[in-house]
Write a structure and sequence with these properties.
Bound molecules: fe (ii) ion
Radius of gyration: 18 Å
Helix content: 10-25%
Order of helices and strands: HEHHEEHHHEEEEEEEEEEEE
Shape: globular
Distance between the termini: 27 Å
Number of helices: 6
Strand content: 15-25%
Length: 289
């Protein structure tokens, strides 16, 4: 009980908690191997337009992105492709992430993503009826793994009221050199700064990013790097500003993330992520709401 109380206190104060050893090395290895197999089976030929910018390619990029709400798709690192859309590194080193329904569609990820330890943690953090909306395997590839700029996850996974919680597990050691998370302790008490919204059909792009509050992003001296060992879980509030630097080291920095919202909140109709009706989101116990 004391542990639960301490967890809640640091959650309310800081907007994040760090749980070393949340999952054992064997489970991390199983997830890394499964991710490698998904990438190996992925045919990049059909998807090399993903980061091109002309309109037709942009539309197909949008379509693949939106469809991934109910699928398992591999997305490329921008620096993995040359101007002609050809891979400049081996495919296994070219993928930015796999998303966004691994936890529902892949048996290995499904097993990893559900269970009593998840349910207990979510309850301790105040999610009365958690629904796991998305999953991502983030590679942060050596040398080319790009920066993820300051943001708040409620920008992308919005509910009324805000309820999204991010769960991030290091599948490899995360350091300042290979692009660990940085957070602004207490920053979850600030406003939501941006909304990422679906646009009406027929426009150039399917989505757009709107600035809704002018509060500045944190200065680096107010941020805390979360250098953690493989197996550590970091949970963070949907309003907590966080970012990760590019990975310019020679080691990858794999992480797996889940995002859950409270079933009592209203999922925003203009969120990019709209689950297919045939795939209702499930709780950490594996059951639909
Ligand atoms: Fe994030």
């Amino acid at each position: 009980m004391n542990d639960a109380r301490a967890l809640r206190e640091s959650w309310q104060r800081d907007g994040f908690v760090v749980r070393p050893g949340f999952r054992p090395p064997a489970q991390l290895a199983e997830l890394r191997e499964r991710a490698a197999a998904i990438v190996e089976a992925f045919d990049p030929g059909a998807h090399k337009t993903v980061f091109a910018t002309h309109d037709q390619a942009r539309r197909s990029t949008d379509a693949a992105f939106l469809a991934s709400a109910g699928g398992v798709h591999c997305f490329f690192e921008e620096e993995a492709l040359d101007a002609a859309g050809q891979l400049v590194v081996p495919k296994a080193r070219a993928i930015n992430k796999i998303g966004h329904a691994l936890h529902d569609l892949d048996p290995v990820f499904d097993r990893f993503s559900h269970g009593p330890d998840w349910a207990a943690l979510a309850a301790a953090l105040g999610l009365a009826r958690p629904l796991v909306m998305q999953s991502m395997l983030i590679f942060k590839q050596p040398g080319i793994g790009g920066e993820v700029r300051w943001h708040q996850d409620a920008t992308f996974l919005h509910t009324e009221p805000v309820s999204v919680v991010g769960f991030w597990i290091a599948l490899e050691d995360a350091t300042r050199d290979n692009g660990c998370l940085w957070v602004q302790p207490g920053g979850h008490r600030g406003p939501l700064r941006e909304r990422f919204r679906l646009q009406a059909a027929g426009l150039d792009a399917a989505t757009r990013l709107d600035r809704i509050d002018s509060t500045a992003w944190p200065a680096l001296e107010n941020a805390q790097p979360l250098e953690v060992e493989a197996g550590t879980l970091v949970a963070f509030h949907g309003l907590l500003p966080h970012y990760s630097a590019a990975n310019r080291s020679s080691a990858s920095r794999l992480a797996y993330t889940l995002h859950a919202v409270d079933a009592a909140s209203a999922w925003s109709a203009d969120n990019w992520l709209q689950r297919p009706a045939a795939m209702p989101p499930r709780g950490f116990d594996g059951r639909p709401a």
